[in-house]
Amino acid sequence: MKIWKLLALVAVICVGVTALTSSAGLAAGQGKTKGVTLVWWHNANQGAGLQLWKNVASEFQKKHPGVTVKVVPFQNEALKTKIPISLQSSSPPDVFQEWGGGQLVDQVKAHKVANLTKYVKSWIKNIGGSAAGWQVNGQQYGIPYNVGVVGFWYNKDLFAKAGISSPPTTWPDFLSDVAKLKTAGIAPIAIGGKDKWPDAFYWDYLAVKLCSKTVIQQSAVSYNFTNPCWLQAGNYVQQLLDAKPFNEGFLATPAQQGATSSAGLVANGKAAMELQGHWNPGVMQPLTPDNKIPAFLGWFPFPNVPGSKALPGSLLGGGDGFACSIKAPEPTCAQFLAYIDSMSVQRRIGSTNFGLPVLKGSESSVKDPNLKAVLASRSSSPFVQLYLDIAYSAAIGQALDDAVANEFAGQATPQQVLTQITDAAKQK
Amino acid sequence: MATVSSATTGRALARPAVARPRRKWIEIALFVAPAIALYVMFLIVPVVQAVHYSFYSWTGLGPLSNFIGLHNYREAFGDRFFRQAMEHNAILAGLSIGLQLPLALGVALLLNRPLRGRRIFRLIFFAPYVLSEAVTAVLFLQILQPGGLVDAALRSVGLGGLVQLWLADLRLVFYTLFVVITWKYIGFAIILLLAGLQGVPSELHEAAAMDGASSWETLRYVTIPLLGPTIRIWVFLSVIGSIQLFDLVWIMTLGGPAGASSTMATYMVDQGVNSYRIGYATAVATILFGLCFVISMLYQVFVLRRDSGTGTARMAG
What we know:
The complex is a heterodimer. By secondary structure, chain A is α/β, with parallel strands linked by helices. Chain A has two domains: 36-148 and 319-380, 3-Layer(aba) Sandwich (D-Maltodextrin-Binding Protein, domain 2); 151-316 and 387-427, Periplasmic binding protein-like II (D-Maltodextrin-Binding Protein, domain 2), CATH 3.40.190. Chain A is built from 18 helices and eleven strands. In chain A, strands 1, 2, 3, 6, 10 and 11 form a six-stranded mixed sheet that branches. A three-stranded antiparallel sheet of chain A has the order 8-7-9. In chain A, strands 4-5 form a two-stranded antiparallel ribbon. In chain A, strand 4 and strand 5 (139-140) form a beta hairpin. Chain B has 14 helices and no strands. In chain B, helix 2 packs across helix 13, helix 4 (80-111) crosses helix 12 and helix 5 packs across helix 8 (173-198). Chain B is globular. Classes of the chains: A alpha/beta, B mainly alpha. At the A-B interface, helix 1, helix 3, helix 4 and helix 17 of A face helix 2 and helix 12 of B.
């Protein structure tokens, strides 16, 4: 008797499992039959961004009856690992976070991303040069909504204390200000060396300030680093390292976590400046005792290197965008991305300090004086290069971060940095 | 498991003898089928798949089309950062056996004596083992900050000269991590050895004492040989643990600076998740798996076999 009971039990379990999996399959497939559903994966899982995206989804649904937008927020790091896996699966999200550059190239090559060119042709010029980072071979595969530039976030009080009247505009001035801060007993620069990418900002930026626009742009295609300006960038980094400007133990300092991170050190007056992206005030805010962006905080762009081939005012930056997967209902998806770049949404991105809007005419929504300075710098720049580690294919970008971090740790010469990046490019 | 099989025999006795073996096998099959299915689905299949992926250059996107044979393996063994990571794993295993074992044995012998507050001491030594690696890592990350608790403690007793950049100094960071690992895992070794010591019959100590053995001789010729099975099991667990070390290192240093504290596992995640070199990372994973497998097998065959039965039974007790 017992054996039959057992068999029955197994049968019940089997049926149950099948039912569960098939109902999940049903739920996933439903979108195709009833109206149009957009499954939207984004990384604004807290604060102003979370609320804004929720509103945007419901507004879009109201304007387009029959369309359902399913919003799925993720923590940023989790999202980064989830996207490639889901794109490989048979049910990828329709709309997903897209940072452009080499990673987008890889996704396009694998035929995972929808070509939006024909849908956005009429309005894409309204977001100016920002669109370029999300193009592959002249075709628009992703749409940015928030683009910023990297620059120095500094403590005005500490600069004044060291006798620096105005922020440096050239590399020699910058080095002499670093020396002044050191003499005044202030740690000049905080850096999150543990995370490696903050190290790479210096190398990237010096390359942008030393190499011509053509050389920089071609490097992302040819991975050819023979132009002497690349080696020069590494030498300038070495020059900075030799001045020992960084916080104590910077090789183990994280960029963003806790009061002893590089952002925390600047926010709490323990270091005078940090080279970081436009998101830095948002990172600093929760790291201060009173949960406020410090009043002493100022911003200045990376200093120019006099006599170089680069256009003065060239900048390093990047931002956030969205792309549609190959399985998405293309016209609706493109309409949705157009809505995110509409004046109403773009102005709210600026006014809530969620990011720096890309649409021409929405700039005035940004009220914070520092973010205004970032925006002004971005708008007037002749050339904004995407962070090199993002612009390059993932493996090569990571090799760049690793190699520069090795130089920071005294484990690689400027020449070895180039060799390491070139070797990674050869593996590809 | 024991109760299940005895219940089966009990019932089977009342039935005709002919049906017994077949029915028994069906029942066994039904009971183990779910476990085997899970084991195959989540262990065997992924391992086989990983080995398969490791022959390709693959970013995780698109089809597996770029077959490159053993190239990933050649690259791994040729990469100085991977060799450095392997070296770290080996040093860690060596240090565990060379330093943790004598330390744990000493503490266990102390705690095995009739000592006031013995239970409290046992609790204190065992407590860190209960913490997760992530919690331990975050805790020590704070303690080892420049100007953190360790630095402040050293300065307050006039040893300020010993203050170091515990996690940022390339020569030091790996040994700093070793101290943290020891702090966390020594309690486990002590508990194992204490359990082993309980199994050393007191008659043997008495006999040794009557024969005029000194306490050192008793330790050397009676206690330690009888602790053999326990020590051998601990060495095994410790070596495998050293090879697989990941969480603590990843949270505290990400394997840095410049790979100075990397392990094979941190190297693998770096290549797979951060560089999207899934094919290469699975080759590293396969090497890691192969290494653990071979070490386990050899250890089983040449070392643990002599402890068959009694040794492991005592361990479990």
